[in-house]
From TrEMBL:
UniProt keywords, alphabetically: DNA-binding, Phosphoprotein, Transcription, Transcription regulation
Keyword Transcription set for record: yes
UniProt xrefs under PANTHER family: TRANSCRIPTIONAL REGULATORY PROTEIN NARL-RELATED, TWO-COMPONENT RESPONSE REGULATOR
Listed name of the protein: DNA-binding response regulator
Molecular function terms, GO-annotated: DNA binding
Domain called Response regulatory: residue spans: 4-118
Biological classification of the source: Bacteria, Bacillati, Actinomycetota, Actinomycetes, Streptosporangiales
PTM-bearing positions, type 4-aspartylphosphate: D55
Domain HTH luxR-type: 144-209
Source species of the chain: Microbispora corallina
Pfam families cross-referenced by the UniProt entry: GerE (PF00196), Response_reg (PF00072)
């Protein structure tokens, strides 16, 4: 089955460019376009696509507010912005976005992102990862959360490495375990903590006090 996508951007040419790019892939289908956040919310609730590309800066209801209104829906939202230093990065991820990309990202990166989030994972560009860490660094240090007590010592190690941005193969290499074992640890961490994906795990690691910026 094709990955069904809604594209939300206030510029018609940008929407068309994304549509042409994604529809050219055999496993991806753009099912609707939206010119603002209000239209995006209606389209997503009506069509229940797998993924939505959501421009952060749109007139009226912007992408951040639209993402907040869609909290709890199954659709996975990738927030798009012109600059990776957009002040809405942290808020968008907290609102439930599954990924964050700049519009300048190459076509193959965008296509990969759609497939990654459709499969249930999250994605961030390197610049955005730095931005999220900076947001945590500016906040008061949290106390260690008792929620961490449900994790084993090995799972705590894995969560720390996830917070550093390591992929499953990189975690495996760091801990001298197999890729499959690393993937299993990540899956168990998400299940135990009731988290949706790696992005939520990174946010949790900082907000719980497990990891301190720097």
């Amino acid at each position: 089955m094709s990955i069904r996508v809604v594209v939300a951007d206030d510029q018609a040419m940008v929407r068309r460019g994304f549509r042409l790019m994604l529809d050219d892939e055999p496993d991806i289908e753009v099912v609707a376009e939206a010119g603002d956040g209000e239209q995006a919310v209606r389209a997503i609730r009506s069509l229940a696509p797998d993924v939505a590309l959501m421009d952060i800066r749109m007139p009226g209801v912007n992408g951040l507010e639209a993402t907040r209104r869609l909290a709890g829906v199954a659709t996975r939202i990738i927030v798009l912005t012109t600059f990776d230093l957009d002040e809405y990065v942290y808020e968008a991820l907290r609102a439930g976005a599954a990924g964050f990309l700049t519009k300048e990202a190459p076509a193959e990166r965008l296509i990969e992102a759609v497939r990654v989030v459709a499969a249930g994972d999250g994605i961030l560009t390197p610049g955005v990862t730095r931005r999220v860490i900076e947001a945590f660094a500016a906040a008061p240090l949290p106390r260690r959360s008792p929620a961490l007590d449900v994790l084993t010592a090995r799972e705590i190690e894995v969560l720390r490495l996830m917070a550093r941005g390591l992929s499953n193969p990189e975690i495996a290499a760091e801990l001298f375990i197999s890729d499959t074992t690393a993937k299993t640890h990540v899956s168990r961490i998400l299940t135990k903590l009731g988290l949706r994906d790696r992005i939520q795990a990174v946010i949790f690691a900082y907000e719980s006090g497990l990891v301190v910026p720097g």
